[in-house]
Amino acid sequence: MGWSPFRRKRGSGGLGIAAIAYVVIDYLRHLSPAWHERLQPTLWAALAIAAVIRIAYYKHWSSEFRAAIPFVLAIVFMLSALLVEAISVRSVTAVLGLDWHSETPPLPDTGQWLLLALNEKLPQIVVQILRARIIGLHHFLMLYIMLNFSVLFNSIKAPGLGLAARYMFTMGIGRLLRTIAFVSTILPSPRPWCASARFQVPKHPHQWAQKYYVPYATNSNAIRQIIHYDIAYAVVGENYDDFQPNWGSMTFLADFLRPTASEGSASWYHLLKKAGGGCNDLLYSGHMLVAVLTAMAWTEAYGGFTSALIWALVMHSAQREIRERHHYSVDCIVAIYMGIFLWKMTGLFWPVKDAAKERRLRKLERIQRRLVQAAKDSDMDGVRKLLEEVEMSSREVSENDGVKSNKGMWLFSCGIICFAIVIVLIAFTLTSDG
After folding, report:
1. What is the secondary structure of 337-382 as a DSSP string?
2. Which of 118, 241, 243, 376 would suit a FRET pair with 290, their CA atoms being 20 to 30 Å apart?
């Protein structure tokens, strides 16, 4: 049989059954809330009891402890990326003001046109299935958690924290790239009312937008002139001053978060907690990134028929994001192939498979004839020498994988630190000039 990405590699299928049961039972909240209230606690209790029982028989604690430090570092990295993203989400919304968001029409989205056309062509039962809220963001996160804990049942290879560290690290990279794409060009929301419903920011644009954008936004001749002179030449008209909160050393964030007078008593951290996913969420969807990374981790670590089902749920979730105008079609498409790319990329310097064991097996296959012949000739020195070659090759692979993993982690961490320093310097420069 040929290799298949959906071939189940370990375990007896219990993980797949538990995953399907979780999704089905959670969907009962829409069909029968009473049954949902009965079955969901029962499922969680059964899974928790089974996990507690298996802890006593788990034999890979040493590898789990070794993976704990990379896991903690990956968590810190991801949380830092989420903080940068939260600042960017609010600043992108705040810099142009609420009037721009409510008055600017959304971009044309051919993906939504296609879904609206299919509503008229497909049978109603199919349309209702496509519209159903079968799976959401929290479901994908819970499936990922179930995948990690399945290491207790030998459904995936140990260490479980190693897979979790790679997942969090990849998520952090994806969030940073998403933030860079998010702030590069401000695009109108697919939901024009989103900004006014979610944020309390001034209606007028920030001084930066008043100087560099507003005078040239609707005048084609002005755009030609700014291209020709390559300098902001227009005289700013009425200048709107923003409310300045007293945030101590974090006051420089006021230019990015733009709090109103009604939020004057709120801390900068409180404003960031309310940022959510933003309203101009283009290139690419954070929801879909989580979904794709969960599907990639599940497919690589476990496989099986449930991997195909999870990918089907990813596609269903993507079309529902477009259908409900949470995102443009391009958001979901880019998130899908970026999630696949990032997961494969981190796999280059964060190996999760037992490369030493695989190398040992390949070496044994290559020397099998020589080993058998040495045994037939009763050449024990030859057998011992061949086995030492196998052990030496596996040891070299383990050392190379460790060096490659640590080197990749430190290189990327240094890059992120340099990036953060550059961002902070730019922020202080802009605020001091303003």
Report:
1. HHHHHHHHHHHHHS--S-HHHHHHHHHHHHTHHHHHHHHHTT-HHH
2. 118
Owner of token pair 């991801």:
78
Neighbours of 431 (CB within 10 A): 14
Would you say 403 and 410 are in contact if contact means Cβ atoms under 8 Å apart?
no
For residue 61, give Cα distances in angstroms to 54, 156, 269, 301: 12, 14, 38, 19
| Sign, Cα dihedral of 308, 311, 315, 316 | positive
Q: Phi/psi zone of residue 2: left (φ > 0), alpha (ψ -120 to 50 degrees), beta? A: beta
Residue-wise pLDDT tens digits, 63-92? 888 889 989 999 999 999 988 888 888 888
Q: Which residues contact 162 (CB under 8 A, 6 or more apart)?
A: 63, 67, 70, 71, 352
d(CA 117, CA 111): 10
Flag the least confident range among 41-55, 182-196, 217-231, 351-365.
351-365
Give the integer Cα–Cα distance in Å for 244 and 261. Answer: 8
CA gap 333, 283 in Å, rounded? 9
Structure tokens at 371: 């080993």
Q: Which residues of 255-274 are buried (b: 16+ CB within 10 A; e: fewer)?
A: bbbbbbeebeebebeebbee
Of 243, 258, 255, 261, the residue nearest 97 (C-alpha): 258
Q: How far apart are alpha carbons 171 and 77 in whole angstroms?
A: 9
What does pTM read for this prediction?
0.78
